[in-house]
Specification:
This protein has three helices and four strands; from the N terminus they run βαββααβ. By secondary structure, it is of the alpha+beta class.
């Protein structure tokens, strides 16, 4: 099966990590219900202050629809003052059956 993986690493401003996590609740809940979404998780690093969204999508078109969704747009607006930087990697992948 072909799919798209997104790794979105968020670098919160000092003291803002918990706020971003709280703001992500609605984003995660609504995204998991989207057509074309396979998985959507937010992970907190144990080594530093970073958060990483790990997303799995059936197609690039599904990912693009997600990026235009109201809940994605709202999260961007609400979290922008709490984020220092963000690095996003989009990977086309094939599942391996080992």
């Amino acid at each position: 099966m072909d799919f798209i993986v997104v790794l979105a690493k968020v670098y919160p401003k000092e003291g803002c990590k918990d706020t971003i996590i709280d703001l992500a609740d609605d984003l995660i809940e609504n995204t998991l219900a989207e057509e074309g979404n396979i998985d959507y998780q937010l992970l907190k690093s144990i080594n530093d202050n970073t958060l990483t969204f790990i997303e799995k999508w059936k197609s690039l078109e599904d990912l693009q629809k997600h990026m235009g969704s109201p809940h994605f747009q709202q999260f961007g607006i609400e979290s922008k003052d709490f984020v220092e930087d963000m690095k996003i990697q989009v990977i086309g992948a094939n599942e391996l059956n080992l």
